[in-house]
Design goal:
The chain is of the alpha+beta class. It has seven helices and 13 strands. The structure holds zinc ion.
Length: about 260
């Protein structure tokens, strides 16, 4: 595997010449930065291809593993990612998720034209529940009635938020690819199954200790019931999902009712 030099976290601000709108400048600088600095977090290939502007589905692709990526960025004076990030049309987003066509997502925050955080969220962590519908644009807006969406990044399990740059420091590339590969087993072909898996994984991640008991996960039963009001067998579902997580190598059964995170 080829290794690039360390990333230069500064944008090429020469490129802002000729643009007036702040959102356009931000898009040009962030996309240029990614095209010049980012490797493929899925397979480790050294370069990513850049689709021509305004392609509706994705911004970048990897020639080697055929992955597609979208980049969303925001300026953050506090250098934090926050709970959500704005994305495009609500309907398009939901259609892409329910038809399994959504690209992987890069989320970037920057301050003073310098990257402070960059993470990759694999597309199989996306479920309709993390997409928040924004109010329609006012009648006075150019695109009156248009409905956008926010991605609730904070509701994605931690395993699905893989840092590439954290607080201005680049993570080791091998580790990024390794962490990515580890999540591959969580891909599911059914969306309701994906939702349950993500929900139970999040509960497990919220338990502070590495070793935990079934009762500690059952403590989330009310919360899960509220999310899945039609399911009358929440505890059975929890046990089933823990079994999946064991089969997928995320947790281990140590003795009946006792588990360990791996
Ligand atoms: Zn690749």
């Amino acid at each position: 595997m080829l290794n690039r030099e360390n990333m230069d976290l500064h944008f090429n601000i020469e490129l802002e010449k000729g643009y007036k709108s702040a959102s356009q400048i931000s898009r040009v600088l962030t996309e240029d930065w990614l095209a010049h600095n980012m490797y493929c977090p899925v397979c480790g290939a050294t370069i990513l291809g850049h689709y021509e502007a305004n392609r509706p589905v994705a911004d970048f692709f990897c020639e080697r593993c055929k992955s597609d990526f979208e980049l969303k960025s925001k300026e953050s004076k506090t250098a934090t990612i926050g709970h959500k990030i704005a994305d495009g049309a609500y309907r398009t987003m939901i259609d892409r998720i329910t038809s399994f066509r959504n690209p992987h997502l890069f989320v970037m925050t920057y301050t003073n034209w310098t990257v402070n955080n960059l993470l990759i969220i694999p597309n199989y962590f996306f479920v309709p529940e993390i997409i928040e519908k924004r109010p329609p644009l006012k009648d006075t807006a150019r695109r009156a009635g248009w409905v956008g969406c926010n991605i609730e990044i904070g509701n994605i399990p931690e395993s699905g938020r893989i840092f590439i740059v954290r607080n201005g420091v680049e993570e080791d590339k091998e580790r990024v690819v390794e962490r990515y590969q580890r999540t591959l087993s969580l891909q599911t072909s059914r969306l309701d199954g994906r939702g349950w898996l993500m929900d139970v994984l999040k509960c497990v991640e919220r338990i502070p200790d590495n070793a935990f008991t079934l009762n500690q996960v059952y403590a989330f039963a009310d919360e899960l019931q509220a999310k899945h009001p039609d399911n009358n067998f929440i505890r059975d579902k929890i046990r089933q999902q823990l079994q999946y997580l064991r089969d997928k190598g995320f947790i281990e059964f140590t003795k009946p009712g006792h588990y360990k995170k791996l």
